[in-house]
Amino acid sequence: MELFAGYYYCMDTSALIDLKKLYPHNIFPSLWENFEKLISQGRLITPREVLNELQSFIDKDDELLRLAKKHKKMFKDLDNEQQQHVRNILQSFPRLIDEEKTTPDADPFIIALAMTENTTVITSEKPANPGARPKIPNVCEKYNVKCISLVEFFAEQKWKF
Questions:
Q1: How far is CA 47 from CA 4, 5, 17, 129, in A?
Q2: How far apart are CA 87 and CA 159, in angstroms?
Q3: Shortest CA distance to 11 belongs to which of 20, 2, 3?
Q4: What are the structural domain ranges in the chain?
Q5: In terms of DSSP bridges, do strands 147-148 and 75-76 run parallel, antiparallel, or are they unpaired?
Q6: For 100-125, how does the pLDDT look when each residue is reduced to its tens digit (9 = 90+)?
Q7: Which end of the chain is more exposed for a tag (fewer CB within 10 A), N or C?
Q8: How far apart are CA 27 and CA 35, in angstroms?
């Protein structure tokens, strides 16, 4: 059995935070080893805006931030194609970004990177009800971008703990 199915992923900030919170490294070390292997293989990426969100949400000494600094190559810079996707996404879903938030908002950049790199989005967000402010799964559905939860990600990778 292949340890890593040949899928590529783009991870949302919420999924990274939940990964740390729900699956602590000291209890699930093999999960974190597998996770870091995917990053090292270049099969798990996220936009640089996710790093900005992490830095605004969590303490500087947090192990998740240390992991992020260790694997800087997972954080991708915005290119012209992604920038165009972000513009299109925000034209179609202007309420995707909460304008009242004072912290960075990576959501459109995550979807744009996934579109550009043909990856699956991993998020802890649930789809919003009609009329509510849209969430990542709503936008992914509109743009035919596969969007899964952490547990679905583990299942797709055939990870067992």
A1: 22, 22, 15, 26
A2: 36
A3: 20
A4: 9-157
A5: unpaired
A6: 776 668 999 999 999 999 999 999 99
A7: N
A8: 14
* Per-residue pLDDT tens digits for 48-76: 999 998 888 777 768 888 888 899 999 99
Q: Would you put residue 73 in left (φ > 0), alpha (ψ -120 to 50) or beta? A: alpha
pTM, two decimals, is: 0.92
Query: With contact defined as beta carbons under 8 Å apart, do 147 and 22 qualify?
Result: no
Q: What type of residue is 74?
A: M
Under CATH, domain 9-157 is a member of which superfamily?
Answer: 5'-nuclease (3.40.50.1010)
Nearest-angstrom CA–CA distance, 32 and 116:
26
